[in-house]
Design brief:
heterodimer; A: 295 residues; mainly alpha; MetI-like fold; B: 324 residues; two-stranded antiparallel ribbon; 2 strands
């Protein structure tokens, strides 16, 4: 009964192999159609970022050109490398935010799964209600509150709201309940380990696979977030890449030469996440409906 | 399974002094779960509960300008009753934005989940050699931020760039102007479907993989076709996962913001109040009317909660599993 099932694909494949597997042309065609639809814009941005400003709107859509490097240089030169600062900011927001969020969720989930204390059900129900309230609708009230304490337009204005993830807490509670046996905690306690040491040295390592998934979830959510930084930040040196590119596109309306920079920026901005996805594929095994399947 | 088990029996006969010595660590232990929860609870209060409370408070306030409206003292905040709600809900641009998002949701959610389910079932059936490639390709858009996705599609929608325009022109069919007023809703919906299908597919695929192979094998040996196995066995087992993906998609749909905001520079058909959230943004930051923006925020938050919670109740499923 885990929300994120750590499936091990290898043995399944092995048992399937001996059975005669009829291949279906219809299945292949449908899957390829789906893949083509999803790859089309990515292929386009790969090709388009190699075009010069004149070629972008004139040559055939998927005809590559030779100006990729020029475009990268031009984009990097934009206001002393502001683009790379946006990339750095995004990495900071997503990296620090997701790390803090994972740790905070792990602690809260561990407490909710492994301790009995007054108010436990109330707290858990509040957190569940939090899952159903969309974060984006909170962005404007959050801005108004932070404006009261003059914290808008700072790194903290984006980082702090990103650190609380009710869904992450919910996931961690499931992991702690499923992956950390009570007997082991009991024996750690008998051996004289304090609650914090038990958590840090016994429970955390046992929850590791699940925590990576929570981290990735939150990392992608912060990396892709637009509205929160868009509202919170006024200084474009604090922008993450999403808000920065949106601003560049707006400038393109008056200076079409900016469009090549926008397209090149779009390509560069998705490279890190795509690499992260491909390298950590096995952690993307998410079963949203916990307990739906008796695994 | 609790760490707060009763004190070990050995202390029963202990001297009062020994009991007193134990009292300190024990009372500290009672606080332990709260210490673990403290960072989460503090952040939850500051960035979830407080903003909702503050928005609710602001939604009931207004500024009254006295005298000539000059000087700091002339602007006084006072109670406004429900007048902000009346103003927000009767704004001629509010209802159209709500209907627009409703229509958008009716396009996006069924299409996205339908395609995700189909792809997950095809992957799970294992009838194709291209499964691994297709799975990664379809999941890839999840790595693309909505702003970048809108930017890529936005360019592809431009007739001068679009390969589809060329293709249709070759067949002498007039291509639709995707960013014109009659198509723009579909243009935004397509971006959301493109970005969301892969994630939902992975969720459903994970749930399918958790179905014991014996069940699928048994059905197949009994002579059931792949389609019958999918329809009679896999989809019923998937229902809870489908319910959850539906709820999460619904929440995501109601807060559509980044896509239309990014397409705006490429199209003059997207107004500043195209979606309810865009209207909140305009009221708060362009018109500086935070009271009306707060009222609309509260309405949206309540509507989202009622819709998602109501749906979970309707399908007779408790909101999330509370037992483990």
């Amino acid at each position: 009964m885990s929300l994120v099932t750590a499936t091990v694909p290898a043995p399944v494949e092995a048992t399937r192999r001996p059975r005669r597997q009829r291949h279906s042309a219809a299945a292949t065609v449908l899957l390829l159609l789906g893949a083509a639809y999803c790859l089309l814009p990515v292929l386009w941005v790969l090709v388009a970022s190699s075009k010069s400003a004149a070629e972008l709107f004139s040559t055939f859509t998927f005809a590559p050109s030779t100006h990729l490097w020029d475009n990268v240089v031009q984009l990097s030169g934009y206001r002393d490398g502001l683009f790379w600062r946006w990339m750095g900011n995004t990495a900071l927001y997503a990296g620090v935010g997701a790390f803090a969020s994972t740790l905070i969720s792990a602690m809260a989930g561990f407490a909710l799964a492994k301790y009995t204390f007054p108010g436990k059900n109330l707290i858990f129900n509040l957190i569940l209600a939090g899952v159903l309230v969309p974060g984006v609708i909170l962005a404007i009230p959050q801005y108004l509150l932070l404006a009261k304490v003059e914290m808008t337009n700072t790194y903290w204005a984006v980082l702090l709201p990103s650190m609380i993830s009710p869904y992450g807490i919910y996931l961690c509670r499931i992991f702690a309940a499923a992956a950390v046996p009570g007997e082991i905690l009991e024996s750690a306690r008998v051996d004289g380990a304090g609650d914090w040491r038990t958590f840090g040295q016994v429970a955390l390592p046992m929850m590791r696979t699940g925590l990576v998934t929570v981290f990735l979830f939150q990392f992608v959510a912060i990396w892709n977030n637009f509205m929160l930084p868009y509202i919170m930040l006024g200084d474009d040196r604090l922008y993450p890449i999403t808000v920065g590119l949106n601003g560049l596109l707006n400038q393109g309306a008056s200076q079409p030469a900016m469009y090549t920079s926008v397209v090149t920026g779009a390509l560069l901005s998705i490279v890190p996440l795509v690499l992260l996805f491909l390298s950590l594929q096995r952690y993307w095994q998410v079963d949203l409906a916990a307990g739906a399947v008796k695994a | 399974m609790t760490l707060l088990s009763p004190t070990p029996r050995s202390t029963v006969g202990a001297s009062p002094a020994a009991l007193a010595a134990r009292a300190t660590p024990r009372s500290r232990r009672v606080g332990v779960p709260y210490t673990f929860l403290a960072p989460a609870l503090i952040l939850f209060t500051l960035f979830l509960a407080a903003p909702i409370g503050y928005a609710a408070y602001l939604s009931l306030r207004r500024v009254r300008v006295t005298g000539l409206g000059l000087g700091a003292k002339s602007r006084v905040e006072q109670w406004a009753g429900l007048s902000n709600y009346a103003r927000s809900l009767s704004d001629p641009e509010f209802l159209p934005s709500v209907w627009r998002v409703a229509a958008y949701g009716m396009i996006v959610v069924p299409t996205m989940l339908g395609v995700a389910l189909l792809m997950a079932l095809l992957l799970d059936a294992g009838r194709s050699r291209v499964g691994g490639f297709a799975r990664i390709s379809i999941f890839l858009p999840y790595a693309v931020p909505a702003v970048v996705a809108s930017l890529l599609w936005g360019f592809l929608y431009l007739p001068r760039v679009s390969p589809i325009t060329d293709l249709l022109a070759a067949m002498s069919i007039p291509a639709p102007e995707m960013l014109s007023s009659s198509w723009v809703l579909w243009a935004v919906a397509n971006i959301a479907v493109w970005g969301g299908t892969g994630f939902n597919m992975i969720v459903l695929y994970t749930a399918l993989r958790a179905i014991p192979t014996e069940i699928k094998e048994a059905a197949r040996i009994d002579g059931a076709s792949d389609i019958a196995v999918a329809w009679r066995i896999k989809i019923p087992i998937l229902l809870p996962s489908l319910v959850m993906t539906f709820v999460f998609s619904l929440i995501a749909t109601l807060q559509v913001f980044a896509e239309p905001m990014t397409l705006r520079p490429l199209s003059n058909t997207i107004s500043t109040t195209w979606t309810p959230l865009m209207k909140v943004y305009r009221d708060a930051f362009t018109r500086n009317d935070i009271y009306s923006a707060a009222a609309t925020s509260v309405v949206l938050a309540v509507a989202t909660f009622v819709l998602s919670y109501g749906f979970l109740k309707l399908v007779g499923r408790r909101a999330f599993n509370q037992e483990d």
